Automatic annotation (TrEMBL), chains A, B:
A Gene Ontology biological process term: isoprenoid biosynthetic process
Family matches, as PROSITE patterns: POLYPRENYL_SYNTHASE_1 (PS00723), POLYPRENYL_SYNTHASE_2 (PS00444)
UniProt-recorded Gene Ontology molecular function terms: metal ion binding; prenyltransferase activity
InterPro entries reported for this sequence: Isoprenoid_synthase_dom_sf, Polyprenyl_synt, Polyprenyl_synt_CS
Co-factor requirement: Mg(2+)
Name listed for the protein in its UniProt record: Isoprenyl synthetase
Length: 321, 321
């Protein structure tokens, strides 16, 4: 069994799923956003976790899709809030249609996620639902924290980790948990998988912060330094500010209103390099991934079942896109 | 047992329910909107329906609250789309905070509705969830249809009834259905209650359309003729257009861009009066309510249990606010 097989079957299910028909302004944006692709890593995690314990992994397709649809719902609404023109290189829903369509179509998408979730196998659906509710609320809390940070002068490393944990990691944790719960695993095992997902998730986001600055623009598929241009309070930026004197060159670039984007990116990267920020970020990221890897090793499942989850985590750790 | 008792206990539950704490931008708007009041008729319907069959009606409080929280979630997002400055005479959430807060806080509110729903009693929660999903999607479909109608030249009476059925009535139907399902009633009884709610719901919305034109501004709590000023395609307007010649005085007032609001309201009401629109609307409304009343009479429950639901429907029918 290889990751590609999960993704192929999953993609087919996503392509043929009927979200609804009329009015078309409500359902076409869902199909559009879902068709733009993405790594599908959250549903892959659910399938892998279920398959650690049960052979019939196709039974976990619907809950896996629930996680992916939920994730894309958050993207549709976040893109309105961020006024983002592009998503995966294509116009965002609020740009292609309009704001109201993006709000309402997103709402229906959240409802669709619950409908898919209701198809979860296993005997304790109410616990699955309550855990999904908690996770969904936390993702919104993370998004609100992120927006609040943008208006603040300073953010501590601890606050930043808490924000990305809520905004990104808990959903990766839940994706694994959902697979284990759907397979009827006991709380102890469910919690092990959740913790693995949360640790991989924090590592995943730190990797994203690093790739924004040090990635290969062709492979990463985004312009390098976007976070720097926008003064986004990433782990790298916060650490660099922590290591800078008051009123440093970095502060100057952050305050600058009139600048050439490429010049600012270049200058900030030089400051990062002088302060050794890349190595510090990679250290913090590696620590999170290692916690995840340790969690995977501790799982009491046959070695051949573990291999695919470990391989997936290794890919997340080493990815350059 | 009187309606006031339900509403008193319900209000107390709503006042003390914890939606969440941090970040406060996410949860304060929920508490704010819920504190603005409203008739609470949807949760009252759930409690009444449950109480038709079971004594311990307090057990249906959480699902009843789910319906009310869901309804208020739709108001929070609809108010953004309608760019409404006021809700129940107070600033809307997007005015008091901002658009992004209203989007995200609304999202969490929908999640909170699912969390409350998960506390429904009864042995078939998955069916309750699936029916709630369907209803929630329909309410969004109705809202999208309503927005589409605003951009259209003509709307038929049939299309209008379909729109208000989705936007308003299915949730009243579901509120009653939810009470019956929570009380473990068979599908036949569940469907009877759903149909009663849908018919009362259409009647309720037609009453709203009538009160906007013919209500007492003091009792109704809104300025009279708001729908007329905005050219809203209500049942009355559509019927009047149907009965008017091409390029009539009504068409003139609809096209007018520069007008004194009170003059337009007065003129359109005179057109309505000349065409007998009020009587036609009251006829259509009465027909819907009568279907609802007939449904209530057919319910096989002890007379004394029926009385409160009948009384409530009579109040909806006769209300002047």
């Amino acid at each position: 069994m290889a990751l590609e097989k999960y993704l192929e079957v999953l993609q087919n299910e996503l392509d043929t799923y009927q979200y609804g028909e009329k009015p078309k302004e409500l359902y076409e944006p869902i199909e559009y956003l879902m068709s733009l692709g993405g790594k599908r890593l959250r549903p892959a995690l659910t399938l892998m976790a279920y398959h650690l314990f049960e052979d019939d992994w196709q039974k976990a397709l619907k809950p896996a899709m629930a996680v992916e649809v939920f994730h894309n719902f958050t993207l549709m609404h976040d893109d309105i809030m961020d006024e983002a023109p592009l998503r995966r290189g294509q116009p965002t829903v609020h740009e292609k249609w309009n704001r109201d369509v993006a709000i309402l179509s997103g709402d229906v998408m959240l409802v669709a996620a619950y409908e898919l979730l209701s198809e979860s196998p296993g005997n304790d659906f109410k616990t699955i639902l309550k855990r999904f509710n908690r996770t969904a609320a936390e993702v919104c809390e993370g998004q609100q924290m992120d927006m609040n940070f943008a208006d603040r002068e300073t953010v501590t490393e601890e606050e930043y980790i808490e924000m990305i944990k809520l905004k990104t990691s808990v959903l990766l944790g839940f994706a694994l948990e959902l697979g284990a719960r759907s397979a009827g695993q006991p709380e102890e095992v469910v919690n092990q998988l959740y913790e693995i997902g949360v640790n991989l998730g924090i590592g995943f986001q730190l990797k994203d912060d690093i790739l924004d600055v040090y990635g290969d623009p062709i492979k990463f598929g985004k312009q390098i330094g976007g976070d720097i241009i926008e003064n986004k309070k990433t782990w790298l930026m916060l650490k660099a500010l922590e290591k800078s004197e008051a009123d440093s060159a970095l502060h100057h670039w952050i305050r600058a209103e009139d600048f050439e984007p490429q010049k600012k990116v270049q200058a900030v990267i030089e400051i990062y390099n002088a302060l050794g920020i890349k190595e510090l970020a990679e250290g913090a990221m590696t620590k999170c991934f290692n916690k995840g890897f340790e969690g995977i090793e501790k799982l009491e499942v046959p070695e051949e079942r573990k291999a695919i989850l470990r391989g997936f985590a290794e890919w997340l750790f080493g990815r350059d896109r």
